[in-house]
Amino acid sequence: MDSHVLDTLIARYEAEEGRLLGILSEIQEQEGYIPHDLLLMLSEKLGIRLSRLYSLVTFYSFFSLQPIGEHVITVCMGTACHVKGAEAVLAALEQHLGIEAGATQDGKFSVTTKDNQFTVTIARCFGACSIAPVLSVDGNLFGYATPENLPAILAGYGWREHAD
User: Fold this and answer.
1) What digits encode the pLDDT tens for the residues 77-86?
2) How do the domains of the chain map onto residue ranges?
3) Cα–Cα distance measured from residue 3 to residue 22, given in angstroms and rounded to the nearest whole number
4) Are 159 and 97 in contact (CB under 8 A)?
């Protein structure tokens, strides 16, 4: 997004109430995440401290400072899911997708595959404890998730197992 496009976007939000969240939401929608350079540009154009923009982006879970994959996989790590094997499910996801566990610079667990096909995140609770462990792919819940049934779930979203 260039400076002119950002100016046009800012102009659509004249009212102070909700202005920043609206602008940030549109940036995320257009870019797929909120790049650091756009935060700097927005800070300069609006005369708002960069730290304020970062505090908004890191507070709201729907914003991301990292690119998001085409498919978002969220593993529940609430108590019931944790006890029933969510860590093994997460480890199997990392293995199948070729990613390593880690936290992004904004402190939210989120790892995207190199091909931008999948982003893996964690959540604290889906409220589906009776079918733990649970994971979600693009908002679709999968209960009783196991490392063994992950390949079938992932295949439904275009993943193909690669021989090492």
Assistant:
1) 999 999 999 9
2) 3-59, 71-155
3) 17
4) yes
Residue 109 carries which DSSP code? B
Q: What whole-number distance in Å separates Cα of residue 146 and Cα of residue 25?
A: 34
Q: What is the pLDDT of residue 96?
A: 94
CA 61 to chain centre: 8
Cis before 133? omega within 30 = yes
Per-residue pLDDT at 164 exceeds 60: no
Length of the chain: 164
Q: Which fold has domain 71-155?
A: Glutaredoxin (3.40.30)
- Other CB atoms within a 10 A radius of the CB of residue 33 amount to 19
Question: Cβ(86)–Cβ(142) under 8 Å?
Answer: no
The contacts of residue 45 (CB under 8 Å, 6+ apart) are 6, 7, 10
> 108: pLDDT confidence band, cut at 50, 70 and 90?
low
Neighbours of 6 (CB within 10 A): 18
Give the max Cα distance, the chain: 55
State whether residue 158 is helix, strand or coil: coil
HSE of 119, CA atoms in CB hemisphere, 13 A: 21
Q: What is the pTM of this model?
A: 0.71
Q: E-strand spans in 59-152?
A: 71-76, 110-112, 118-123, 135-137, 140-142
